[in-house]
Design goal:
single chain; 3-stranded mixed β-sheet
């Protein structure tokens, strides 16, 4: 797959931001923020696009995350449209969606939260076994990037 073959599918797509994150051990990752409405279009070509971008930025993992909004508990709509805060805009919903975006080609099979004695919480995420060969090298990057974005500790396990 060459970049010329990707061009037609990229014509209507754009990114809102890109950020380089230190993942520890000298590794770096590039997070590409895309508009939420374009996420499905990016997901269709994500595997090929990420492969090409990782070739271009050698030694860096490329991750695609949708730009999402978190609304606080005290969110009040304007006079015309009153109602509750949408569930998709809550903190937990946005954090779960970010996790889904980070591991995209792989499916999340299950999640467990481990509460340690000292009060720290560790989120254990179980990923689908069929993608283990493709994703295993990126698991540490996923954990570091998720920690940077949400300040939550996470570990990935294949099941």
């Amino acid at each position: 797959m060459t970049s010329t073959e990707l061009k037609p599918s990229l014509r209507d797509l754009y990114i809102t931001a890109a950020k380089e994150v230190e993942c520890g051990g000298g590794l770096k990752a590039i997070i590409m923020y895309v508009p939420f409405k374009l996420l499905k279009s990016f997901n269709k070509i994500q595997i090929r696009l990420v492969r090409e971008l990782e070739k271009k930025f050698s030694g860096r993992h490329v991750l695609i995350v949708a730009q999402r909004t978190i609304l606080g508990k005290s969110y009040a709509r304007d006079q015309k449209t009153n109602g509750l805060r949408p569930n998709s805009r809550t903190l937990t919903a946005v954090h779960d969606a970010i996790l889904e975006d980070l591991v995209y080609p792989t499916e999340i099979v299950g999640k467990r939260t481990r509460c340690k004695v000292d009060g720290k919480k560790l989120l254990k995420v179980y990923l689908d076994n069929k993608d283990q060969a493709n994703v295993e090298g990126k698991v540490d990057t996923f954990a570091a990037v998720y920690n940077k974005l949400t300040n939550k500790q996470v570990s990935f396990i294949f099941q």
